[in-house]
Structure formats: structure tokens, C-alpha cells
Design a protein that fits this description.
binds adenosine-5'-triphosphate, alpha+beta
Length: 457
């Protein structure tokens, strides 16, 4: 089960506080969204799951968190200044702009006019001025991908960790693209986050590693609760590939608006390290002549046995956080008809992604004894370090269950009058809606076990 259309998801996200249009108060900023109280938890959980799988659970990947502001030379020599463009077409009638590859049957997607200009390249990078003088002389780019800082820090990481091939550098962070037509909720936005790994391998082993990473990434998405039926792979043909790519496999997802890219897994060869090394060599020639040395900053690894310098090839799985959030929300969204003929919306999120792990609900709102007990249960569970435990003081159990089903809370714990006598609580399971009674002492172990077993596939 998934949402029937994007509007259902958008409505749920707004109603329950997952996502809001950015600057809504002033009419909205197109192509930008803000994550609300539950959205930020879900997004952080997804990023944490990626970091755990890519960095902590492996012993061949290091992490990085580099600056967003990027020196123009980096993006000049990476090829982005010249080629990071989309073909732009203007409609002579309604004056709106579209991406040429999104035009169907030669018609403007806004007004249907066929009076369109010839496509011209439009660079997607955002620029900003540096320092107090606004004459544009000193500027930086907002990075259009997190990858470049991994390449420019390659030597730093190798020198400080003594890594040998194969090894990777992972990074999660913001990227900015001045998309011509942001659309489909958070699918295509101008400010988003990427989860990127650059995995450096010996040339010649690149194709095997490329295959390996495509499989691993597909498995990871399944572990996040994305159904295999909604995932597919697309071998990107040469004329659609980025300038640096020898081969790209896009992991496609059946979004509510259609099948589109969720993650790209590219074989970037030695394009980036090679290009930055070449530029370094040229920039350093004068310095070397003066210092009588040939110690150019080689973005390469020295093989310990042969002493040979190798410029590695790199395999890059690059996933968008927003597209990931949209996919897991869509796959979790279920509109369920119950036995009594009523229906409920339930987000069947994997517990490790759920924004709230458990809600503690006193049976009566503002009843001193119940509230005090519920708070003490909540604090005890919160201190387990398993994520957010929510104190739900609505006084209406049915309404609380409905709310927590809708936001994907795996467990609701009710503190009632029996709790005050017997120190037991009821626990309701989100998916089966079944309830059991449990001693408060047993609650922490039960919750840890259940959350863990339900998170694994
Ligand atoms: P598309 O063809 O959809 O524009 P792309 O091929 O340019 O995407 P990549 O450069 O491969 O995208 O970026 C890697 C990932 O970053 C994408 O798979 C996607 O998840 C995410 N991403 C890229 N552009 C955007 C965007 N404008 N909004 C949200 N996520 C994006």
C-alpha cells in the first residue's frame, strides 16, 4: 500500500508537522521546504541509518563534513562551470521557462503554446559574494554536490589515515541547484541534502565495485522499508550521463508522480582526482621551480608494496535525502479498512525511522497521579537513548491512537488507574493494534527488543 497520490502525502505532512513550504508566511519560496517537528526526526533517522551502514558498520570508509561555500577553482576544474547545465527553453507566450527535456510534443507545459525558443544551456550553480564588497569580484559557489570536497580533501584524508585502496569517504550535507522548474513536492527542490560516498578503487576493479555498490544500495533501500516492487534500475545511456561518468546506474523509485531517480550510482573513473591533480601541477610549476622539488599535490595513493602512485577510480553512490524521505513516507502510507468498517491511516515506518518511538498516554488528562506516573515512565524510557518518547496528554485515547498511527509511532503506552495499583501499563502495537499488559519494570527491555526486531528485515 502507498499513498494514492502526492496530495495525500502533502496533506499528511502539513497536518502532522513533517514538512512546510519555506517562507509560507510570505507566499512561499519556490523549491524550498522546511522540515517540521516530526520531519526533522524522520530525516535525521534516515541520515543516521545511512551513516551507520556506510561508515560505522564498515571498516573501510571514513567520514567528512566539509564546507558548503566552495572556491570557484574547484568547480571550474571539476568541469561544473562549463557543463553543469540544463537546457532551458522560454515560452514566448506565457514567458515561463522549462527544461527542454521536460517538453512533450513541442508544447509549453504551462500554457500549451508551441512558440518556444531554441534550448540554451543554463548553469545550475548558485553563486554568492564573499566579504563586504558586493562588486562580485570575490565569490564562492554553494556546492551543487557534496562530492567535490571529498576529492579536494582526498590527500588530507589519505595522509591522516594512511588508507590503502580500496577505501571510501562518506559525507552527508546540503547541496544547492538552481533548478529551472522545481516540482513534485520535495522531489525536485533547489536546496536539498545528499548522502554521498566516494569509494576509491584500483583502476580495472572499478566495474566490479560498481556492480557491488548498486546491489548494496538496493538492499539498503529495502532495509528502510521500501518495497522491491517500487524499486528498479536504469542503466543510463551515454548521451544522458554526466561529463565525468563512464557508467551510471540510477536506482529508480515509483514516486506518486511517476518512476524517477532516487539515487545515482556512477563510475566517475579518475576524472575528478586526475583533473584536480593536473591543475595542481600547473599551478605549482612555478613554486616547484623555485623550491627545486617535484612534490606536486598528487591526488593519488602510493602502493606500499610496489611504491607506485595510483590515481584511483571512484564509484559514487549518491542519494538525495528529500527523495529518500518521500520514498519511505510513500511506502509506509497505508489507508486501512478495519473490521468494524471504519478506516485508519497508518504510517508503517520501520521503527528505526519513526519520528516518535513510543507515546506515553495518561488515561485522564491532567489527573495528577496519572500524569506524574506517565511522566516518570516517559523519562525512564527517554533515557534509554532509543529516540524520542512522547508525552501525550490529550485525555482521549482513541484520538491519540489515531494521531500516532498517522505519524508512525510503533507503540502507545497507556497509564491507567490499574497502573497506580499494580505498576503495569498497556502497550498497543501500531501495526496489529493488539494490546498487552506489562509490568513497568519490563518495559525498557521489551521496547528495545521490539523496536530492534521490527527494524530488521
Ligand atoms: P535529476 O536527473 O533528477 O536532476 P541528477 O541525475 O542530476 O538528478 P545527481 O547529480 O545524480 O542527480 O544527484 C544525486 C542525487 O541527489 C539524486 O539521485 C537525487 O536523489 C538528489 N538530487 C539531485 N538533484 C536534486 C534536486 N533538485 N532535488 C532533490 N534531490 C536532488
Amino acid at each position: 500500500m502507498t499513498a494514492q497520490n502526492m496530495d495525500e502525502l502533502v496533506a499528511l505532512c502539513k497536518r502532522r508537522g513533517f514538512l512546510y513550504q519555506s517562507s509560507e508566511l510570505y507566499g512561499g519560496l519556490q523549491g524550498a521546504y522546511d522540515f517540521g517537528p516530526l520531519g526533522v526526526e524522520l530525516k535525521n533517522n534516515l541520515k543516521a541509518a545511512w551513516w551507520s551502514a556506510m561508515v560505522h558498520e564498515r571498516d573501510d570508509i571514513e567520514g567528512l563534513d566539509a564546507s558548503i561555500l566552495t572556491h570557484p577553482a574547484v568547480l571550474r576544474y571539476s568541469g561544473h562551470e562549463a557543463t553543469f547545465t540544463d537546457p532551458l527553453v522560454d515560452c514566448r507566450d506565457c514567458k515561463k521557462r522549462s527544461r527542454a527535456d521536460h517538453i512533450v510534443d513541442g508544447k509549453c507545459p504551462f500554457c500549451g503554446s508551441t512558440s518556444l525558443t531554441e534550448p540554451r544551456p543554463f548553469n545550475l550553480m548558485f553563486k554568492t559574494t564573499i566579504g563586504p564588497v558586493e562588486d562580485g569580484a570575490e565569490f564562492a559557489y554553494l556546492r551543487p554536490e557534496t562530492a567535490q570536497a571529498i576529492f579536494t580533501n582526498f590527500k588530507n584524508v589519505v595522509d591522516s589515515t594512511s588508507r590503502q585502496l580500496p577505501f571510501g569517504i562518506a559525507q552527508v550535507g546540503k547541496a544547492f541547484r538552481n533548478e529551472i522548474t522545481p516540482r513534485s513536492f520535495i522531489f525536485r527542490v533547489r536546496e536539498f541534502e545528499q548522502m554521498e560516498l566516494e569509494f576509491f578503487v584500483e583502476p580495472g576493479r572499478d566495474e566490479q565495485w560498481h556492480h557491488e555498490w548498486v546491489q548494496r544500495r538496493l538492499d539498503w533501500w529495502r532495509e528502510q522499508g521500501v518495497s522491491s516492487n517500487h524499486l528498479s534500475r536504469y542503466d543510463v545511456p551515454e548521451d544522458e550521463r554526466a561529463h565525468y561518468s563512464k557508467a551510471t546506474v540510477d536506482i529508480m523509485y515509483q514516486f506518486p508522480h511517476g518512476v524517477e531517480e532516487l539515487e545515482g550510482v556512477a563510475n566517475r573513473t579518475d576524472f575528478d582526482l586526475g583533473s584536480h591533480t593536473k591543475q595542481q601541477a600547473e599551478l605549482n610549476i612555478q613554486a616547484q621551480v623555485e623550491a627545486n622539488t617535484d612534490s606536486t599535490a598528487k591526488l593519488a595513493v602510493q602502493d606500499r608494496t610496489t611504491n607506485q602512485w595510483i590515481v584511483p577510480f571512484v564509484i559514487e553512490p549518491s542519494a538525495g535525502v528529500e527523495r529518500g524521505v518521500l520514498a519511505v513516507l510513500n511506502d509506509a502510507y497505508t489507508n486501512e479498512v478495519l473490521e468494524d468498517g471504519k478506516s485508519r491511516i497508518v504510517l508503517r515506518l520501520k521503527p528505526h525511522l519513526a519520528p516518535i518511538k513510543a507515546a506515553v498516554i495518561p488515561l485522564k488528562r491532567n489527573h495528577e497521579g496519572l500524569v506524574e506516573k506517565a511522566q516518570s515512565v516517559r523519562i525512564k524510557l527517554q533515557r534509554l537513548g532509543i529516540g524520542r518518547i512522547f508525552f501525550e496528554n490529550s485525555g482521549n485515547i482513541g484520538k491519540s491512537y489515531r494521531k500516532h498511527d498517522e505519524v508512525g509511532t510503533p507503540f502507545c503506552i497507556t497509564v491507567d488507574f490499574d497502573t497506580l495499583d499494580s505498576d503495569t501499563v498497556t502497550i498497543r502495537d501500531r501495526d496489529s493494534m493488539s494490546q498487552i499488559r506489562l509490568a513497568c519494570d519490563e518495559l525498557p527491555a521489551y521496547l528495545i527488543d521490539e523496536l530492534q526486531s521490527k527494524s530488521s528485515i
